[in-house]
Amino acid sequence: MGRPVRAICLSLVMTLGAAKAFAATADAMTLELNDSQRVGLYGSAASVVVGNPLVADVAMLDSHSLVISGKGFGATRVEVYDSNGRELFNRRVVIVAPQANQVTLYRGPDANEFNCSPKCHVVAANSSGGGSAPSGGSAPASAPTTTTMTISQTSVPQH
């Protein structure tokens, strides 16, 4: 085989490999914590597998549809099979922190995450320093459970 043909074949193989890797990444379902999404199935579900049930939960609506809910931060895989073992659904599920109405309050090295709509309630606390995003499903025992705050919106005069 000549060099040009070899180069074309190698280029084609690399392109197909990159496309497959991109498709696998694009196939992930991203949900916010405590959010859910309905999934329709092309077949009748007989069994459901959730890789990490601390991250996501699945509720069957009927044999052709299910709801995936975000329970904890992280990633897992949800698989659904019919009675013959045929795969109906297989997707990586990533649970992330809610973006809307989120406020992070820093007190020195400690950070508290609040969800504000319209009053603010503690979502998670990080007292290890550094103020990073929450990494576990629930706040540590030392986190205040009754802390609330109200954020009022005021307009700033423009000059």
UniProtKB/TrEMBL annotation:
The keyword Transport does not apply. Keywords: Signal. Residues 1-23 form the signal peptide. Residues 128-159 are annotated as: Disordered. The keyword Translocase does not apply. Residues 26-95 form the Pilus formation protein N-terminal domain. Residues 135-159 have a biased composition (Low complexity). InterPro entries: T2SS-T3SS_pil_N. It holds the Pfam family T2SS-T3SS_pil_N. This is Pilus assembly protein N-terminal domain-containing protein. It comes from Phenylobacterium montanum.
